[in-house]
């Protein structure tokens, strides 16, 4: 069992209580059983999350929609698990969905994991989405500095010269300046 799955199952064990469905979803190797947990009415959130994670890690596309919903959840641990599974799913829609979530101003408080997922995927959508998200975070008194810092770090990791203008602008923000210097140093001349 990989570390992400172990962490997820420990967290969800507490949510599931003594439910026999928990043990069944952890133990099964039948992807159809996992997929059914995503669509059967009345399934608790922990069951849907466990099924989606396991399907995504197995490369089963039936998990895509559930994982995208979890990537935008208010609970950061659910977002992190969804991002991990989406990165392994290999679905070509993932980068577009992550970019849409990262740039959605109504959900910016939950954009940290979509930003990190875009960097991990290194998809064509990553740099434009991170530039857009970071530019919006550079407004005075923006409360989402964690998202801004993830964008700065991610743009440095991606090493795309299109990020230079917004990274230069980030230098004026004390919380971001040090990381912006490092990110700019990673860009090609």
Automatic annotation (TrEMBL):
<protein>
    <submittedName>
        <fullName>Adenylosuccinate lyase</fullName>
        <ecNumber>4.3.2.2</ecNumber>
    </submittedName>
</protein>
<dbReference type="InterPro" id="IPR011989">
    <property type="entry name" value="ARM-like"/>
</dbReference>
<dbReference type="Pfam" id="PF03130">
    <property type="entry name" value="HEAT_PBS"/>
</dbReference>
<dbReference type="InterPro" id="IPR016024">
    <property type="entry name" value="ARM-type_fold"/>
</dbReference>
<dbReference type="InterPro" id="IPR004155">
    <property type="entry name" value="PBS_lyase_HEAT"/>
</dbReference>
<keyword id="KW-0456">Lyase</keyword>
<dbReference type="GO" id="GO:0016829">
    <property type="term" value="F:lyase activity"/>
</dbReference>
């Amino acid at each position: 069992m990989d570390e992400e799955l172990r962490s997820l199952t420990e967290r969800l064990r507490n949510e599931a209580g003594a439910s026999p469905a928990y043990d069944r979803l952890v133990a099964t190797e039948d992807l159809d059983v996992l997929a059914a947990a995503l669509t059967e009415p009345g399934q608790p959130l922990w069951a849907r999350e466990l099924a989606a994670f396991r399907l995504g890690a197995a490369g089963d596309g039936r998990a895509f929609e559930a994982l995208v919903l979890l990537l935008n959840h208010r609970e950061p641990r659910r977002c992190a698990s969804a991002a991990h599974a989406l990165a392994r799913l290999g679905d070509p829609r993932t980068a577009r969905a992550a970019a849409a979530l990262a740039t959605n101003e109504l959900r910016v408080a939950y954009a940290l994991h979509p930003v990190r997922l875009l960097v991990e995927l290194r998809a064509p959508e990553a740099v434009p989405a991170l530039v857009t998200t970071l530019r919006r975070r550079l407004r005075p008194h923006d409360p989402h500095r964690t998202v801004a810092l993830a964008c700065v770090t991610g743009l440095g990791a991606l090493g795309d010269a299109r990020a230079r203008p917004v990274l230069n602008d980030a230098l004026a923000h004390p919380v971001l300046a040090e990381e912006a210097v490092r990110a700019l140093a990673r860009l090609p001349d």
